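Progress note, project year one: complex with adenosine-5'-triphosphate.
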Amino acid sequence: MQQVLLFALIGLGAGAAYAAIGLGVTVTYQGTGTVHFGLGAAGMWTVYVFDELRRTGDLLLPIPLVRVPLGSPTGTAVALVLAVLSAAAVGWLSQLLVFRPLAAAPVLAKVVASIGIMLTLQALVVLRVGSASRAVAPVLPAGGLHIGDGAVPQDRLWIAALLTVVTVALWAYLRYTRFGLATRAAAENERAASLAGFAPQALAASTAVIAGVVVGIFCILAAPTLGLTTTGFVLMIAPGLACALAGRFDNLFVVLATGLLLGVVQSELTLLRGQEWWPTWASTGLNDAVPFLAIVGGLVLVGRSLPTRGADAAEALPEVVIPQPRWLPITAVIGGAVVLLFVLRGGFRFGLITSFIVALLALSLVVLTGLAGQVSLAQAAFAGSAGFVVAKLAAAHAPLPIALPFAAAVAALLGVLVGLPAVRIRGAQLAVVTLALGIALERFVFRNPSFTDPAGNPIPDPVLFGISFGVSDGLQTARIQFGLLVLVILTVVALGVANLTRSGTGRRLLAIRSDERAAAAVGINVSASKLLAFGIASFIAGIGGALIGYSRGQLTADSFTVFVGLSLLAFAYLGGITSVSGAVVAGLSAPLGLVFVTFSRLFEDLGTWYAVLAGVSLVLGAIFNPVGVAGAATSMLRRFRAAGGHHRPVAPGPPEPPPVAVVGARAHTGKVRLRTTGLSVQYGGLRALDGVDLSVRAGQIIGLIGPNGAGKTTFIDAVTGFTPSTGEVFLEGLSLDGAPPHQRARRGLRRTWQAVQLFADLDAHDNVAVAAQPFDLRTLVLDLVRPQRAPVLAAVGGALARMDLTPLARVRPQTLTLGQRKLLGVARALAMPGSVLLLDEPAAGLSGADRIALAARLRQFAADGLAVLLVEHDVDLVLSVCDHVYVLEFGHLLAHGTPAQIRTDRRVIDAYLGQASRGVEERA
Ligand SMILES: Nc1ncnc2c1ncn2[C@@H]1O[C@H](COP(=O)(O)OP(=O)(O)OP(=O)(O)O)[C@@H](O)[C@H]1O
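Model obtained:
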């Protein structure tokens, strides 16, 4: 028992460092809205500044090659003050140069930029002082405090106590000072803070400085017990993020408690490791698995499989370049690669082969991040798992055609497992999970002697049809045969990814990337599609990892560290994370690739400089050129073509629009298609919908009107499964109880959105196509080979033509007027097979003439046999076009009847019609 207490107290040192980083992350998030992945690196930077001052008297500056000698080693106090000032400067510069320009940028850009800061700081330290580990002299009293027979180093208790004081001070600052309150307000609403008399940017900068200083000080205090390396503190961002997540980026005391608890748990694990009965396999790396498990567990508990209404659902990402099959350039590039393979020799050829492999790995990010919008920092870990599986299989003499796909399948399975939490979390949180996973896999599996051989895991040469495709042979270090093998695999995968991008499956992934709720409403199973993206991406990464194995002939964990994963994301982003050509650029420019090898002949020490360059260009890329090198080149090419008159043709709709697709319906049957009984929705203390009974028959248009906040949209949300409800919903007489939104959509419920919610990454045609295409396994396989299909195109053309949008088929929603966007929303719903159409304010934004045209169209839909529910504030439209009208007030049905009855109903006039007509008069 005494031992347990002793180890618990010892764990407080590391725990305080985690908590300090967690506090820094939380405070930065409150001030800047950014999850700062580089705070661990900022802490490491501060410790090195402190240690260098004490050792040599040189002041490190965050600029390459600049170092200010102060004469002789300084004392602790001076070193501490200067180091803290440096920490403040780094925090301020990060805000000024990075987060400020990215204030309105997509989450991915912010994540990438903060990783850029992390890589830059780390590379700068390696460049200046090397990467050897150091012992840092203690600042706090180091003597032991005796407990029974044992002793706890006093500094652990001091550091925990000091951090508790700092946490209380930070809490009081944010809660009780005007500046602190304004900071919290600015995180919610910048304009509100400006009105309170504070410049939002000054508030953000102050939090960045505070975060940097707190993290810096506590890293200095913890360094004597934890040791100083260029990676240790950097990776402490994972437990730090776990703490911040536990405190929901808000509650500082939960952050503190989680950090200390993590430290204690890890320390107790060290105690357990010393026990005889403790399994050997659990003796390495378990400490790194703990934060990962804590993060995943916590996030899955609080996450939701679809964002709530009004949540920031759109994870805007760089524009996707949808590739057109241009065989001439493709053949030229492949031909060029073959020629290079034959022309280049030795290290250059090896560099080219490495470029091919990195391009493959980058392709996995194109699928996962570029297409599906899921930020993963664990691609190197997926690759590594396949690499080690290949090592095991090859050792058992498994031939290449078995070992390679099997290893990739293992990676895919792992990817799907990791994707499971991704179903419930999104954006920066997913980046946090994948970062922690990368660390856990590296430490717990790849470096665990129970699973892999630390001295190296030999992989024999691959043999195919009796021919050796080994990478080396005697003096030859990079054989053409191996290069050709890798090139063939890369080509097949690249074509597959290009096809995927152009296909229905690709559109579905892009739809999820744009708007998960709207995607579910067109029948896309968002969770399954995310898992599919994780599976495909990890399979590709697995192939890359297996090829890395074959290319080395000998595998160690060093090929798949977390930093390899981060650097992969960096180069994939720089090349262009949304396109196949971007992956090729990433491959060519990545460390150890062809460009690197070429320059390494010119510059000594290129590796470290390359790392600085990668970090800095990652930050710059995130700010100035999120589409990457390939994206920029494509837009230039597009502009050039446009100037030369090569316009991409507008997709023509079929001349005669086919009728609206109605499943299982004959026109004018009058059968009840949709019926609700006692439908109720509770939002906290608010009864937004209260026992609504309503039915819509085939061939009917039913109006649903009521004042603002009456519950009309909530009714559509409840029917379509987007909000939990009680009561019953029947479609075609069958209960929809428990069915998620995408299943309801597939069963025939189509809807539009008050806020339109089109897919920003897809043009008008593809917005509709994504709803028209059926999905099954056969479609997926076909998508990888032959993406375009005629029946889908016909249905899309028909829906666009019905809403007069054919000439705008190739225009993105952002450039359409509100009215056109509303019509496109209707066209998207029309393209789905189904019998019920729920329209949420389709006339908003339409001109008078367009409203009349819309009314005619609605009547036509009904004539075609659809059951239409119309939610609208344009009372004249509703009363002129609907067969029957329901009126909602405060969530319950006030009245229902024919338009004539509603127009004269006293209660309706008092509650709504009077208001609505006053509104119209006021507007007039
Ligand atoms: N996700 C939510 N959480 C909490 N309350 C909500 C949520 N969504 C809607 N509400 C509340 O439920 C009530 C009904 O809102 P709803 O948007 O359905 O009304 P509406 O009739 O469509 O209004 P409008 O005509 O302004 O669109 C409102 O008081 C709204 O503030």
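The first strand starts at residue 58 and ends at 60.
Confidence is low (pLDDT under 50) at residues 310-315, 645-668, 919-924.
No further modelling is planned for this target in the current period.
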